[in-house]
Write a structure and sequence with these properties.
The protein is α+β, with helices and mostly antiparallel strands. The chain is built from one helix and five strands; from the N terminus they run ββββαβ. The chain has a five-stranded antiparallel beta sheet, covered by helices on one side. β3 and β4 form a beta hairpin.
């Protein structure tokens, strides 16, 4: 599952900020929440958090989404399903 968000720039001519949230299965039967953030058109900063179970990773993703919406980000697109099927 992934969510891509953008924040409208305050000043004209400034690139919008972006946040890309991705849940990936890792090689140890766990899950990673990958957060990439930065300015559109530039390389972003990447952070990863490990979770033993998919529901915990999904909860963290949705909490991050909600936090960023309160900071002025808007969801541009969502790809994937909200539930993991074994």
């Amino acid at each position: 599952m992934r969510i891509y968000m953008q924040q409208i720039p305050v000043e004209s001519g400034q690139a919008p900020r972006f946040l890309h949230l991705i849940i990936q299965e890792d090689l140890l039967n766990g899950w990673s929440l990958v957060r990439e953030m930065g300015y559109q058109g530039n390389a972003g900063r990447v952070r990863r958090n490990h979770f033993d179970e998919y529901p915990a990773a999904m909860d963290a993703m949705l909490k991050e989404r909600d936090t960023q919406i309160k900071r002025g980000y808007q969801v541009v697109f969502v790809d994937g399903q909200g539930q993991h099927h074994e």
